[in-house]
Structures are given as structure tokens and as C-alpha cells.
Amino acid sequence: MRRSLSIVGAGRVGRTLGRRLKRLGWRIGAVVTRSAATSRVAVREIGAGKPYSRLDPEIFDSNVILLTTPDGALSGVAGALAKFDETKLRGKIVLHTSGALDRTVLAPLARHGASTGSIHPMQTFTGRGAPKLEKVIFAVEGDRGATIVARKIARSLGGVPVTINSKNKPAYHAAGALVAGHGLGLIEGATQVLLKLGFRRRDAMRALLPLMRQMLDNFERLGPHESWTGPVSREDFATVAKHTKALRSYPSEFNDAYAALALLGSRVLSKNSAASKQLKRALRKSTGGKS
Q1: How far, in Å, CA of 61 to CA of 10, rounded?
Q2: What is the pTM of this model?
Q3: What one-character-per-residue DSSP string does 98-139 give?
Q4: Cα separation of 158 and 147, whole Å?
Q5: How far apart are alpha carbons 232 and 230 in whole angstroms?
């Protein structure tokens, strides 16, 4: 049977995966978004498919149904699909792409005979250009049939499928958010510190991006402990105190973030078990007892 795919919620992730799979020979069936206009745009970007602005029985003409809606909409979409003729779901593979949710959100579909699971690429999708998927980790979970298909999809896209326990999805997704979402807040926060000192944004980025890139390169080549630099790594708590004092002139989130990240770094990187306690005392003293 020819590989075929319907996509429900064809936003950034759905369009990207649909376009890549179409190039790999998949037949694209129904492409569903919230409006006729956005579904037509999605079909154009994917290069194939039939646009729909609502759920339609043609969705079930495909072997695989990919749900790429926001997390909050998944339960409603699953419930709505389950209201169609239940015979249409028997033998279908239904996968969602949420990083935090597991297959239980698709329980109404599983009860009607669908094989359910999830496939989540650990990558950012901005909608501006296609992100790289080669060598990207795809977290896979679900029942046996869904997991087999999800792993095949991940490998065909050049990714590395990793099967994880369903209950571990939130922690897995939190790890990604620490790097992508919170990491972006971190570098923009540092940029704003420099802007307040009179830097132009271009110069602030020139100062910070090479620093971050070198840190990541060191982390990859040398590992975490050999790459760790800065006053916390040297247990230079006098400098830490100077930093927290300087950050008092910024919104409180800046100092709170600095203290939290210093403590996290000490917790996961320091080989001195007493260092974290010393750091906590130093931070408490320099922030007036807040940390």
C-alpha cells in the first residue's frame, strides 16, 4: 500500500513535515487548518494535498493521520475525529507532534481501533525557512504499530528516533524548553543589559553570539566540566556579589535569573559539594536575603 498522509493543523510543524514527506514519495491527502485561506496556503507550501477548513471524512483516506495542532486543541480534535464512522479509524495510524503530551490524549481514537502515538522533533520551527531535521532527535512513543511507523518517518527525514516512556514526555519537553525557549530569553536578557550600557544591538550581538557559540562548541568537544568558565566555576563569590549588585538597577527578573542560573550551574557542574552552599550564602547576602 502506498504511503499516504493527512495533516490536521497544518501550521509550522505540519507544513514542514508534510513538505519533506511529500518529497520522499508520500501521497498527501487532506490538509486541514482553521480557515479556507490558511489551508490553501498550507497546500501550496507542502506542494500537494486537498485543503479543508474543517474535519472531513477524506482525512481517513490516508494510512497515517498526523495531528500537528497546538497542545490545547489535541483533545478536542481527537474527540471530533472519533465521532465519525468508527470503522474509518480501524487500522489507521494516528500520530500527534506534541512534545509534552503522550498518546493518552488520543484515547478516543484508540478505542475505535486506531493505532496511536506521538512523534516530536527536538527542533525549533519559526515559520521562516525550513529547519534542519538531519540528525535531530525525534522522541517517539505510543503503541507498537504507531511506534514502528513513527520511527520509520523519523529515519526517513534523516532524524534519530528515540523511544521514550509516555510518562516522561513533560520532563523531556522541559529539557528542550530550557535550551530553546529559556536560552533565547537568556541571550536577549544579556543583550538588553548591554543595550542599557550604551551598546548598539549589532555590537551587543557581536559580543554575545561568539561567546555562546564557543561555549556550545566547547561543550560538544570537551564535555560540560572542561567547558565551564566564569566566576561560579572558580568559586569567585566576590565577583558574583558584584554582578548581583550591578543587576539591581534592572528589573527583578534579571537578578532572579542570574541567581537561579548560578545555582543550577553549581548544582550540575561543580565537583565541590560544598560550593553550592557557599554560593547560596553569597547570593543571599548580596541580594538582601532573597535567594
Answers
A1: 17
A2: 0.90
A3: -SS--GGGGHHHHTTT-EEEEEEESS---SSSPPP-TT-EEE
A4: 17
A5: 6
Residue 106 and residue 80 in contact, taking contact as beta carbons nearer than 8 Å: no
Give the whole-angstrom CA distance, residue 243 versus residue 148: 51
Residues 6+ apart with CB under 8 A from 236: none
Task: Say whether pLDDT at 130 is over 90.
Answer: no
Q: pLDDT at position 103, please?
A: 98
pLDDT at 23 over 50: yes
Q: Provide the residue count of the chain.
A: 291
The answer to whether the Cα torsion of 264, 269, 230, 224 is positive or negative is negative
241-266 burial code (b ≥16 CB/10 A, e <16): bebbeebeeeeeebbebbbeebbebb
Which residue in this structure is represented by grid cell 528542550?
176
Give 185-232 pLDDT, tens digit per residue: 999 999 999 999 999 999 999 999 999 999 999 999 999 999 999 999
For residue 31, list its beta bridge partners.
7, 51
Question: Phi first, then psi: what are they for 161, rounded to 5°?
Answer: -75, 135
Between 107 and 270, name the one with better pLDDT: 107
What's the pLDDT score for residue 288? 61
- Residue 31: predicted pLDDT: 98
Cell of 152: 520509520
| DSSP alpha helix (H) spans, the chain | 12-23, 36-46, 71-82, 107-110, 144-156, 169-179, 181-196, 201-222, 224-227, 237-246, 252-269, 275-286
Question: Beta strands 64-67 and 50-52: pairing type?
Answer: unpaired
**How confident is the model at residue 51, as a pLDDT?**
98
Question: CA 246, CA 193: separation in Å to the nearest integer?
Answer: 10
